Amino acid sequence: MGVLKSMALWFDSGVTTEPVPKEEFWKIEWTRIVPMIFMHIACIAVIWVGWSPIAVCVAVGMYVIRMFAITGIYHRYFSHRTFKTSRFMQFVFALLGASAVQRGPLWWAAHHRHHHRHSDEEEDVHSPHQHGFWWSHIGWITTRGAFPTDYKAIPDLVKYRELRFLDRADLLIPVSLATGMFFLGVVLNAIWPALGTSGLQMLTWGFFVSTVCLLHGTCTINSLAHLIGRRRYETADDSRNSFLLALLTMGEGWHNNHHMFPGVTRQGFYWWEIDITYYILRTLSVFGLIWDLRAPPKIAYEHKENPIVQERTSVRDPLNLPTSVHANPAT
Ligand SMILES: [Zn+2]
Ligand SMILES: [Zn+2]
Fold first, then answer.
1. If you measure from the C-alpha of residue 113 to the centroid of ligand 2, how many angstroms do you get, rounded to a whole number?
2. Residue 120: nearest ligand to its CA?
3. What is the pTM of this model?
4. Closest to 108 (Cα-Cα) out of 147, 142, 135
5. Span from the CA of 59 to the centroid of ligand 2 (angstroms)
6. What is the DSSP string of 220-246?
7. How far is the CA of 199 from the centre of ligand 2 (A)?
8. Which of 76, 244, 255, 278 has its CA 20 to 30 A from that of 17?
């Protein structure tokens, strides 16, 4: 693919629908990952722009809000449809999700459903057991084959024109957010100089540092959550539960629970399994913004008396409660 065509894809990721030839699937798409590389390099600017309590607070706040956007919206809503909402709220959620700079909602959901269907098998593009730690963590995102959105995996989402638009223009919201951060710093500096911030400082902390931390925090679920922690359920993959990762990712660290019951809204099944995303979703449901949150089935809590096993050969449906588990395995 020519450099110009590749650059056009920064602005419209759906500008070409050419299928990626098999031999080019794993090739790194250097032109398209320039924005991602730039975001990492831009973090070094902290040396020159310095820091201020307000800039660091905004960076932390943006991490928390957008980690919720990834886990509560891109993951538990768009990828698994574990609760319902209105079309208007769905669009608001998609905007919030897009601000996390992890491409569009359709791209994210399609790739994630693929992960559940093939987790830790050869086809899984981000399994640390198939392709090594760094590949599962970040390498796979850079490849030519990982860029297109597979519409066939998301027929329930692709029918919404506004989602298709956001998915194609997946740099629109991130660029708007970065611009907003810069002007926030400029305005704060003008009206309250004692805060010690500036446009470039707020852009660096509130956007670049926060976004890069968010990216790697999210990526730990693809890499570390299939390597470290405990396995409560015998899932067909090597997913694990980790308290540390659950804190870092606001609930996603209960990954073994999630792989066994992907259609359930909560991922921490007990009170001590901290799942901040679920607490926020519960709060949104109290206000009527979302509804029909799906609870874990009874067998989830009977695993000690009745161990349940997920069959590797079964067709796994990331949208549904497990049809592919059975209690009291005969063997
Ligand atoms: Zn997984
Ligand atoms: Zn999932």
1. 7
2. 1
3. 0.91
4. 147
5. 26
6. HHHTGGGTSSB-SSB-SS---B-HHHH
7. 37
8. 76
**Tokens matching residue 121:** 């098998």
Q: What is the C-alpha to C-alpha distance for residues 275 and 270, in angstroms, rounded to an integer?
A: 9
Check residue 121 and give its pLDDT.
Answer: 83
Question: pLDDT of 272-330, one tens digit each?
Answer: 999 999 999 999 999 999 999 999 999 999 887 777 777 764 446 666 644 344 443 33
Give DSSP secondary structure letters for 133-180.
Answer: HHHHHTGGGGBGGGSS--GGG-HHHHT-HHHHHHHHTTTHHHHHHHHH
Question: Please, which pLDDT band fits residue 268 given cuts at 50, 70 and 90?
Answer: very high
Please tell me the distance from the alpha carbon of residue 37 to that of residue 18, in angstroms, as a whole number: 25
Rounded distance from Cα 140 to ligand 1 centre (Å) = 14
DSSP string, 110-138: HHHHHHHHHTTSTT-TT-HHHH-HHHHHT
Query: Cα(48) to centroid of ligand 2, in Å?
Result: 39
The torsion of the CA quartet 118, 215, 171, 95, rounded to 10 degrees, works out to 80
CA of 196 to the centre of ligand 2 (A): 41
